[in-house]
Amino acid sequence: MTEIVSARDLKSDLTLEADLCVVGTGAGGAMVARQAAVAGLRVVALEEGPTLRTEMFTQREDEMIPLLFQEAGARATIDGAVTILQGRGLGGSTVHNTNLCKRAPDDVLARWPDGWRTRDLLPHYEAVERELNVKPIETRRINRNNALLKSAVEKLGWRGAVLSHNREGCVGSGFCELGCPVDGKQNALKVLLPAAQRAGARIVSDCRAEAILLEGGRAVGVRARATHATVTVQAPVCLAGSAIGSALLALRSHFPDEKNQIGRGLHLHPGVAVAGLFDDPVEGWIGIPQSYECTEHLSFDEESDARVWIVPGFAHPAGAASLLPGFGAAHKQRMRDYSKMAIFVAMLHDQSEGTVEASSDGRPLIRYELNSSDQRALLHGMQACTRLMFAAGARRVLLPFATPLELDAPSENLQHHYRPLDPLLTAVHPMGTMALGRVCDGEARVRGITHLWVADGSLFPSSIGGPPQLTIYAAARKVAAQIVDTLGHR
Ligand SMILES: Cc1cc2nc3c(=O)[nH]c(=O)nc-3n(C[C@H](O)[C@H](O)[C@H](O)COP(=O)(O)OP(=O)(O)OC[C@H]3O[C@@H](n4cnc5c(N)ncnc54)[C@H](O)[C@@H]3O)c2cc1C
Ligand code: SF4
To answer: Ligand 2 center to residue 66 CA distance, Å?
Structure first.
């Protein structure tokens, strides 16, 4: 079986033998599956979500959000304060992401364990960038929402830049977060999984890993659940179910963890959306959604209160409605202004650490509270977005507090006492929970267990303050080399 198969229709239990079982097929999992298969290992990759194909991507929110996202798009922290968007299906979160590609800053990697500094990741970054065709976004493709941010940054004399991406053949439909209908994304689904398959990997979708099988301190396989059958894979294991999925599976598998470190150290890189109302149409849904960044307020100094990455954050209508504050008639009026609205998002390089726990029904319980320093930094970021909006020419600016705040001029001293849900926060970049140096050793092996590696966003010992996919692909490529070294070439 060298193909991608769905386990949905499997009627009887199945046991597969392999050299490596990879759990999860997102950025990390697809990279490990491909690299290990190309090196000659017999690989089985399990994916809890469905097989996804280009022709399925209708770009309709009502169809795509339940299909592509974990918990049908409703995943959140247990207090509801942070909505967490993550992918579920072949290709994981790379299927509906916005394709921004940025290396982790040297200042951040300098604090990571030995072996994970910029010089160690560099060859992997370079290889990933080549393979996924990463390049700067052409300036002619900057849409009005992004152009407004660019003009404001230039007017204020702040730091900003055009971003890089991994698109090829993009026609600018603008709805990247719902999957690409023209196959314009050079992602795990399009590039890595087919290559893994060509190299002989067996890829099984609709098959949820429920336990890692341990014997005498060694991982010997995975027990997974399809709709009507159990799938058992007998093999060493690499976890790549994402910062939430991998910790959940580790907890459900009762790994030895005397110091209760598994599931801790969750960074969400939470974002808050600030909306600006303009006299002319912005029509932010047209074209590439994000192409320009403002880094003026992104310091990697741990003491700094300026720790936000600012990017335009235009969303499709339901997404925009969920980001805009207020209820009833006032909310309806805001949505009437949708075409004349620009949105800038301040994403916090967070120091706060949350946790993932396993609930009795197998779902993750995610706890996360912003500490006081992060609360200050978030407010600082909102204030910066407000200044940018007015510099871009906004007539009014709307801040998503529980009691929405509308400004018609920049406020020099924005005051707000943070509470959960006030302001509304969304996270698309969860990191941590099985971190290097904490749960994993320097070779990304889970401490105390042999033949068990981690290769996804859960490895990160800190937030990286920016888009993480490139670093996850690069880290997974490095982990794959270590796995191949250990398990040997066939
Ligand atoms: C809306 C959105 C926009 C984004 N935009 C960008 C961007 O522009 N640039 C960027 O760098 N990053 C972006 N990201 C984030 C980026 O896509 C992720 O950080 C990255 O894909 C995470 O890689 P991963 O391997 O850790 O997990 P994922 O890619 O999420 O893959 C994990 C996979 O494991 C599967 N899985 C989990 N548990 C199990 C189990 N028990 N059994 C079987 N399978 C399991 C999941 O279904 C999923 O398919 C965005 C994310 C979102 C949601
Ligand atoms: S903007 Fe481009 S990459 Fe994104 S979904 Fe549309 S065509 Fe695909």
So the answer is: 19
Structural domains present in the chain: 1-133+180-268+431-490 (3.50.50.60), 137-167+271-349+370-419 (3.30.410)
Tell me how far apart the alpha carbons of residues 309 and 463 are, in angstroms, rounded to a whole number. 12
Q: How confident is the model over 27-84, as pLDDT tens digits?
A: 999 999 999 999 999 999 999 999 999 999 999 999 999 999 999 999 999 999 999 9
What is the token pair recorded at 19?
Answer: 């050299």
Atom number in ligand 1 closest to CA 87: 30
N- to C-terminal Cα separation, the chain: 18
Measured CA to CA, the distance from residue 2 to residue 24 in angstroms comes to 18
Nearest by Cα to 287 from 163, 150, 135, 170: 170
Phi then psi for residue 230, to 5 deg, are: -100, 135
Q: Is 197 in the pocket of ligand 1 (CB under 6 A)?
A: no
**Catalytic residues, which ones?**
429
pLDDT-derived band at 326 (thresholds 50, 70, 90) equals confident
Q: Which among 266, 428, 433, 460 is the best mutation to test ligand 1's pocket, defined by most ligand atoms within 8 Å of the CB?
A: 428
Question: Ligand 2 pocket check: which of 68, 145, 176, 187 to mutate, most ligand atoms within 8 Å of Cβ?
Answer: 176
